[in-house]
Amino acid sequence: MPTLSTTLLDAVALLATFDAQVAEIVWLSLRVSGAAVVLGTAIGLPLGAVLAIGRFPGQQAAIVLINGLMGLPSVVVGVVVYLLLSRSGPFGAFGLLYTPSAMVIAQTLLVIPLMAAIARQVVEDAWQRYEEELRVMRFSWWQSVTTLLYDCRHSLMVAVLAGLGRAMSEVGAVMVVGGNIDRVTRVMTTAIALETSKGDLPLAIALGIVLVVVILVLNAVAFAVRGWAMRRYG
Amino acid sequence: MFPIRIRGLRFRPNGRAVLDGVDLDLAGEGITLVLGPNGAGKSVLLRTLCGLITPSDGDIDWGGGRRPASGVMMVFQHPMLLRASVLENVSLAMKPLGVSRAERQRKAADVLERVGLAHRAGDSGRHLSGGEVQRLALARAWLTRPRLLLLDEPTASLDPSATAEVERIIREIRTDGTRILMTTHNLGQATRLGDDVVFMSAGRVREHTPVQRFFARPASDEARLFIQGELPWRMSF
Hints:
The complex is a heterodimer.
Chain A: H1 4-16, H2 20-53, H3 59-69, H4 74-85, H5 100-136, H6 141-151, H7 153-169, H8 172-178, H9 188-198, H10 201-233
Chain B: E1 4-11, E2 19-26, E3 31-35, H1 42-49, E4 57-62, E5 72-75, H2 86-91, H3 101-114, H4 130-143, E6 148-152, H5 160-175, E7 179-183, H6 187-193, E8 196-201, E9 204-210, H7 211-216, H8 221-227
Parallel strand pairs in B: 3-7, 3-8, 5-6, 6-7
Antiparallel strand pairs in B: 1-2, 1-4, 8-9
């Protein structure tokens, strides 16, 4: 039975030697979660802005739904995407199940509500301050959306970071639709779960360290950029 | 667009009469100062004219037609400032007009020159002083060459030097052919800038006269008390 210290030393050794298996898993995780966050940003932020300033029937219900979906269990999203992409599902013909693309789709669906809900709150606050002047200048509905998203870009970084955190740390959805196939769909979280269950704790710990470091570095960069932008633009 | 004829304009949110039958004629030239105590309905009248408020009742005739789709601009007491450069904040006004970004920025640079902010074009709009913010807001409105410009206390809380600069720009905009309707609590400013005065209280226009006559011979007791600074606060409601 390995001790905690020997496990940690083995994990650090794996990282120090730049283990190929670890690198491959980390790289796939970054690609999958990065793609999901890019797609989530492109869809979730405008969706949040539309919910903030649009006036349409069912708007309140849509806001409640988006807020509710923030807490959606990732494994449920995984099952839904699994059903959609399975051979007998409506998108089965694309053959996406157990591929990184399926994992991107699942993670995108997970992060959209979170990013949209945060964006809605941020943009709604700005809309209350800017509405009259934008209306006087005869901004169209869509011009108002794009202008507010641009103006709130520093605050919306929080939404992007929250999406990234959710995408990178979730395990249920990618496990279901990716299958945790070695060298194909194995990402950090699924690998940690698998290696822990196998008893290969050094690899699990090494991946855990990378996961935490990646998230901390991205947050630190975002914090620094936001600080610079706030000093530059107020 | 002119003459603008306002008849029986009422605005009663939650049953409270903010505008209580405003009648007013505005010809096509000059600067009209809207004076009156707090709560008289001055700002609401301006907001109604630029379409931000739908009146409960009454008519506004815009030179024989309905409110034009463009040509009316408003500068607020606390103008909106995007987290962007001064140049971008000004050129923003032309975005809905379908003008290219390069053209917008060229025209914005021209108007910034006229309001004395060219040297700050690249700075963040949020780093401007109060007076500079108002000049930016005037530049943004001027950029669209409005026929009617509504100014809601544009010099409130500005120091005398910043106020003088803003007044200079307002005169220039007027000389450029824009009709100006402006609220203020600064009676000195009214005499310096105004051609005529609209005095309001309790949601109604009490008198509309040339500025010299208003201050020399106010027609109503309310206006006289207002000029003397003795209008009881309760009369504003």
